[in-house]
């Protein structure tokens, strides 16, 4: 098994022609999700080694041996390997079109993490004092902001949490963020700058924070 790529090794292995995950038949949503989850981080490698029968061994083997390991070893995954995974997901799930249609990444993550590999939800969120909600990823929802022309991920997450009155109940072990939706006809942002670090201090529920006026521990929060 191969460790995730980092620093110069990542550039050496992943840069150039015929690199990444080969697309085929509306697979872009799955290709992008798998690349993001496994190419350069090990935080979700437990999915690859979770013991049977707590997970589906066949799907796990395809994910580990046909997609993740080749991606980390050579920087390239053939389309037929992803199609093999899509065929298995079609058999295991309630969805008949995983091999042909484009899906929402959240739909794919929920199926493979929850129903097939048995991973506990990664996020606990609370909105306006209501009950906690659990999820595997967070999709950014926000109205168009005229002052955000080329935003970074930090700005988008903060704007989205503020507009939805959301807080993180606890620090997540893994924070999967889906960028704002766009299609062929409309794109909210032409580019989004990746934030290499994400400050979630102001997004945490009941987290002690500094008062911006006096410097003591804050007792009130103004949105």
Automatic annotation (TrEMBL):
It holds the Pfam family UCH. Its main location: cytoplasm. It is found in: Cytoplasm, Cytoskeleton, Spindle. GO terms for molecular function: cysteine-type deubiquitinase activity. GO terms for biological process: protein deubiquitination. Residues 20-200 form the Peptidase C19 ubiquitin carboxyl-terminal hydrolase domain. This is Ubiquitin carboxyl-terminal hydrolase CYLD. It comes from Tinamus guttatus. The lineage of its organism: Eukaryota, Metazoa, Chordata, Craniata, Vertebrata.
């Amino acid at each position: 098994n191969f460790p995730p790529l980092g620093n110069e090794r990542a550039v050496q292995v992943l840069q150039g022609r015929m690199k990444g995950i080969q697309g085929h038949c509306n697979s872009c949503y799955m290709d992008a999700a798998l690349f993001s989850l496994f190419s350069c981080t090990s935080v979700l490698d437990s999915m690859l080694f979770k013991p049977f029968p707590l997970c589906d061994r066949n799907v796990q083997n395809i994910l580990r041996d046909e997609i993740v390991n080749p991606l980390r070893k050579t920087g390239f995954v053939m389309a037929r390997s992803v199609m093999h995974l899509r065929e298995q997901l079609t058999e295991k799930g309630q969805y008949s079109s995983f091999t042909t249609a484009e899906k929402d990444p959240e739909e794919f993550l929920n199926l493979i993490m929850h129903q097939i590999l048995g991973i506990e939800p990664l996020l606990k969120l609370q909105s306006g004092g209501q009950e906690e909600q659990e999820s595997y990823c967070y999709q950014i929802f926000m109205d168009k902001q005229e002052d955000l022309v080329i935003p970074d991920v930090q700005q988008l997450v903060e704007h989205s949490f503020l507009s939805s009155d959301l807080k993180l109940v606890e620090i997540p072990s893994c924070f999967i963020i889906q960028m704002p939706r766009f299609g062929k006809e409309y794109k909210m942002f032409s580019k989004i700058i990746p934030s290499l670090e994400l400050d979630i201090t102001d997004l945490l529920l009941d987290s002690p924070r500094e008062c911006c006026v006096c410097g003591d521990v804050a007792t009130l929060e103004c949105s």
